[in-house]
Write a structure and sequence with these properties.
This protein has about 325 residues and is α/β, with parallel strands linked by helices. It has 2 domains: about 5-90 and about 105-175 and about 260-325, FAD/NAD(P)-binding domain; about 180-260, D-Amino Acid Oxidase, subunit A, domain 2 (D-Amino Acid Oxidase, Chain A, domain 2, 2-Layer Sandwich). About 25% of the residues lie in helices and about 30% in strands. It is built from 7 helices and 16 strands. The protein has helices spanning about 15-25, 60-70, 70-85, 110-120, 230-240, 285-300, 320-325, and strands at about 5-10, 30, 45-50, 90-95, 100-110, 125-130, 135-140, 140-145, 150-160, 180-190, 195-200, 200-205, 210-215, 250-260, 265-270, 275-280. Strands 1, 2, 6, 7, 8, 9, 15 and 16 form an 8-stranded mixed β-sheet that branches. About 50% of the residues are buried.
């Protein structure tokens, strides 16, 4: 007897949005995740900014990123109805170096977004298991997720483990996802910016009565230490962009971005086992792509067509380079 229609491994922004999207389709969901405070979303600025360093406008991946941004307001409206939590979406992004203003880019309040998702999920037919997943096994027409607590049997599996996705045993081949540590900080009581300010190697994002300063990037594995170098870099960004004294920075937070070799998500069905669907490796655009990616995942799990083309994010696109090593 199966525990669920679909087991979702990972409870960061990818896992939460996928769980909610699948439950909206009437699927019985088990969400497996250890609720790590080092997940990328816990330190995220919530940027929705496909206009920054964009790919060509006709590039399929760029079209997906733009569609993800443009769908955010309507998606947040539905989420507010489900959860009763209003999530602030601040539109407008100014590139300080060039003076270009992007009126449709912006940022979302990530703490409020995570709260809304948690509430919405608690009101759905979703079972939570607060533990990590060790491996996936195949037993006949079912998939089994091994955890320290128990075995979860499901018809389909969604791998949404963020920076930890590559550690799930039983996937073929292993996922090319690595952790990149990013640090942000807050400045409280500063004048409220009307929009996101981007430049000087970082950005300032208005969030309530504070400004979020981001972000560093260190490719050091799962080293969760916030270094003096992180603090110095963020202080320099704050000073250059808005004349802020580095000594005012507080509340430093670190999260591990799940980076792929090309910086694009891993999104779609497993080339060898179509019962497995991937929603990971969101890299620097996790908050941006999560709702649209989740809608695509839910469609795939339900046997339908994704609402947006996902060919650029095929999981096996790195297979030839991996095989040649």
């Amino acid at each position: 007897m199966r525990d669920a229609d679909v087991a979702i491994v990972g409870d960061g922004i990818a896992g939460l949005t996928c769980a909610l999207a699948c439950a909206r389709r009437g699927l019985q969901v088990v969400l497996v995740g250890a609720r790590s405070t080092a997940a990328a979303s816990h330190a995220s600025a919530g940027l929705l900014a496909p206009s920054i360093a964009p790919r060509p406008a006709d590039d399929p991946a760029q079209r997906f990123l733009v569609a993800a941004r443009d769908g955010y307001p309507a998606w947040l409206d539905v989420l507010a109805e489900e959860s009763g939590v209003e999530v602030t979406l601040r539109l407008g992004l100014l590139e300080a170096d060039s003076g270009r203003f992007h009126e449709r880019d912006g940022a979302v309040d990530v703490p409020a977004l995570l709260e809304a998702l948690e509430v919405a999920i608690s009101r759905r037919r979703i079972t939570r298991l607060a533990t990590g997943a060790r491996a996936v096994e195949r037993e006949g027409d079912a998939l089994v997720v091994e955890t320290p607590a128990r075995r979860i049997t499901a018809r389909r599996l969604v791998v949404a483990g963020g920076a930890w996705a590559g550690a799930l045993n039983g996937l073929r081949p292993a996922l090319p996802v690595r952790p990149v540590a990013g640090v942000t900080a807050l400045v409280r009581g500063e004048p409220d910016l009307p929009h996101v300010l981007y430049g000087a190697g970082g950005y300032l994002v208005p969030r309530g009565d504070a400004l979020l300063v981001g972000a560093t990037a260190r490719d050091v594995g799962f080293d969760a230490r916030i270094t003096d170098g992180d603090r110095t870099s963020l202080g320099a960004i704050a000073r250059k962009l808005h004349g802020i004294d580095a000594g005012l920075l507080e509340g430093h937070a670190l999260g591990f971005r799940p980076m792929t070799p090309d910086g694009l998500p891993l999104l779609g069905v497993d080339a060898h086992d179509p019962r497995i669907v991937y929603a990971t490796g969101y890299s620097r655009n996790g908050i941006l792509v999560a709702p649209l990616a989740a809608a695509c995942v839910a469609a795939l799990v339900g046997g339908g067509e994704p609402p947006a083309p996902i060919a650029p994010f095929a999981v096996d696109r790195f297979a030839s380079s991996e095989a040649g090593r």
